[in-house]
Amino acid sequence: MIRFILSDLRRLWAGSLVVVLLVALATALGVSVVLQERALRLGSARAADKFDLVIGAGGSETQLVLSSVFLQPSPLPLMPGEVLGKLAADPRVDWAAPIGFGDSFSGYPIIGTTTMLAQNLSGGLAEGKIFGREGEAVIGAAVKLSLGGEIKPMHGSLEEGGETHTELVYHIAGRLRPTGTAWDRAILVPIQAVWHIHGMEAEEHAEGGAEAEHDHEVASGTDSAEHGHAHEKAGPDHDGHEHHGEADPDAALDESWTAGAPGLPAILVKPKTIADAYKLRQDYRSGNTVAVFPGEVLTNLYATLGDAKQILVAVASGAQALVAASLVLVTVIHIGQRRRQIGALRAFGAPRGAIFGIVWLEFFFLVAVGIALGFVLGYAAALILSGMFSETSGVAMPVGFAREDAGLAAVLLAFATILAALPAVLAYRQSPAQALRA
Questions:
Q1: pLDDT > 70 in the chain, percent
Q2: If you count DSSP H runs as helices and E runs as strands, how many of each does the chain have, helices first?
Q3: Ranked by mean pLDDT, which of 98-112, 302-316, 391-405 comes out on top?
Q4: Phi, psi of 248, rounded to the nearest 5 degrees
């Protein structure tokens, strides 16, 4: 029987190949959706695990996490600099690291922060040293620059027509170890250097003028077009350099925070204990500030992703149903064309059960091969998509099969069993005399 089936498949190789490809493509669509959604969940969850608590000004919790953890560019409202001073002096806090963003270089975001965050983000350096002066920078593992290279910060991005800062040129002092997060594509520089090149001195913040408010928007990532026209809005008495400060590349770092610090878009906090984390979260969830656990925010985001997944799975299931209907039509026509062959087998004494088995095995084999190929193609597609996403975001997207995928394969094979029975039943019911007269 096996020899007969293999001989039949070789003879009808073109039609067999079409059946396998149809099943493979339909299966690959569903498998890639499942694997990609899982990779996104795992990758984002692992990236968020690096940060225990994020504190920002009152506003969208989701945007705060996306901007501070995943470094997605967006203007955030600023909280008073005194919040940083309070956190630094709080006995429940192991360390608190301010972050400021809005500048970039060669497509990489420049993040103003502290030596404490640079030391703890990846568990050490792969090469070089932590920045120790205003003119030094530390790059993420995925930043394609070399130690000692120059970084000329640009406000905004090149695509937005950003303006290059001439006040300071950073020199790369070290490279972080891989973290599997968006910070692998980041350039870390001293936060005080970011304040200085944007003219955000502590005393300016205390005065609270219109100029200081503009500078705060720059550090929180406000659109570069607004920055480019700020001088016109400020009035005719302002010259073209008033919104920029001066920075000394050889200046030592001062990371003792006071109440007079400039406004900040976000602060990353490492509490000493889990209990401290919950207490800090409650204390800073007032009207002026918001404190969030990134994992908690992602849980709400996953609910939205779950709805999107259901839609994509429904689309994939619809495609698979259409393929199944097409296969049924093809097999019915195929059985009609093989009536003489089936009639000859019956005339030579082949029992009905043998005819049923031959047709069923032949069709089930084709569908099973298509399902297996579909899993391979779906896995490859998910790898490619995850690689593209990781290249642009820096977040590692682990693609892999899980136990529940075995259940999906079992369901598809069970469906193949039922689908293969349809042409087998048609062949089983054929009369040898009618088949030979056809």
A1: 74
A2: 16, 12
A3: 98-112
A4: -105, 110
